[in-house]
Amino acid sequence: MNANTRPKPIYMDYHATTPMDPRVVERMLYYMTQAFGNASSTDHTYGDEAEAAVTAAARHIATLLDTAPRNIIFTSGATESINLALQGHCNARTPRQRIAVSPTEHKAVLDTCQALQQQGKAILTWLHVDQQGRIDLDHLKRVCQTGIDLICIMAANNEIGTVAPIQEIANIAAQYNAAYFCDATQGVGKIPIDFDAAGITYLALSAHKMYGPKGSGALIVQPGANLLPLIHGGGHQQGMRSGTLNVPGIVGLGEACKLRSQEMDQDEPVIQAKRDHLQNLLQAHIPQLVINGDLHHRLAGNLHISIPGLNNSILIAHLRHKLAISTGSACTSGIEAPSHVLQAIHLPSNLIEGALRISIGKFTTTADIINTAHILIQAQAAIAQKQ
Asked: What single string gives the DSSP state of each residue in 230-248?
């Protein structure tokens, strides 16, 4: 059997990216082929229709996040949103900004913060996390008492799935007059987030983590927050992000948000039940299995496991044509280095070596769960027998 005729692996890597919802694809297709106008072209109906679609998408995003459409800046994805928030914040202010950052943040946040520090625009203070990846709120308060301008703590971790207490963090930020940047890339559409009520200053999101297209995202900005743009030319989006709008991508993001608003409350408990089923199957046959992250506050579709004594790279090589799972974040895929998240939570080296990230979503079937368990159990047993 060649690669073209071999059955596709079971997809269990929803934290890396999600399959697009067919309804999102259908909606986008119209704006690729029929309503292809430039949203800034105000002299004809093609432009009018594109502009109306962008306006509608902003409303759908605003509804999901309980904010106003005017607070939304469309971007090419979460990484651009993160850079606009962090660089834009620091570039708009002097002297150097004091940033408190969690060591378990996505690399897009960590690398941007470290670049700002190297440029002399920021001073970083590292926050404490426990072995489940939970933020030490008492330490956060003590750090804020020393004077902090910006707090960076994500809504939900992209590796171990731990969900942060967003409201408590925002309350601390407000108490000490600090801005709060929340990378909500993994959280939007999976957990309730009320941007306005929480008092978040900046929030980043990406469409492709919630059944939308790659290359489309947004930054939500609290009114009155002072940001300098990264991209100049044309003054689009209130001067905050110039460039011709990606109308099909924005439509896809908006449609994905609309569907999550309507279906999240029904989908997530079903996803959690399937995740728990898989976890129980694996634990029944691999008794030494360790579950990483906060078991009581994690994303419904997240199952981050470690198998002591197992080399995860060997396991992936053994089953990659049958099962699509990962050893860590897609942002560092291919880099031969231990996960910074697992190191930050002080996971023992033997558990880091045997760590696997399994993530499921709304298109994961019960058959996928059962077959995944069977494949993993069989592969683990075969590798153990050879050792």
From this structure: S--SS-TGGGTS-S---HH
3-state secondary structure of 160: coil
Mean pLDDT of 300-314: 94
* Catalytic positions, written as ranges: 331
The parent domain of residue 310 ranges over 10-19+264-386
Question: Is pLDDT above 80 for 331?
Answer: no
pLDDT of residue 239: 87
Say what the pLDDT of residue 138 is: 98
Element of type H or E holding 73: strand 72-75
Segments of 104-149 assigned E as strands: 122-126
335 pLDDT higher than 90: no
CA distances from 322 to 8, 216, 359 (A): 7, 30, 15
**Given this model, what pLDDT does residue 162 score?**
98
Residue 75 lies in a domain: yes
Q: How far apart are CA 224 and CA 233, in angstroms?
A: 22
Task: Tell me how many domains the chain contains.
Answer: 2
d(CA 328, CA 112): 20
Tell me if the bond preceding 287 is cis, omega within 30° of 0: no
Residues 241 and 285 in one domain: no
Regarding whether 246 and 109 lie in a shared domain, the answer is yes
> Both tokens of residue 280?
């129980």
137-146, 197-206, 313-322: least confident range: 313-322
- Residue 242: both structure tokens together: 């110039």
% helix, strand, coil for the chain, step of 5: 45, 15, 40
Quickly count helices (H) and strands (E) in the chain.
12, 12
* Measured distance CA(86)–CA(65) in Å, rounded: 20
Q: What pLDDT was estimated at residue 385?
A: 83
For residue 2, being part of any structural domain is answered with no
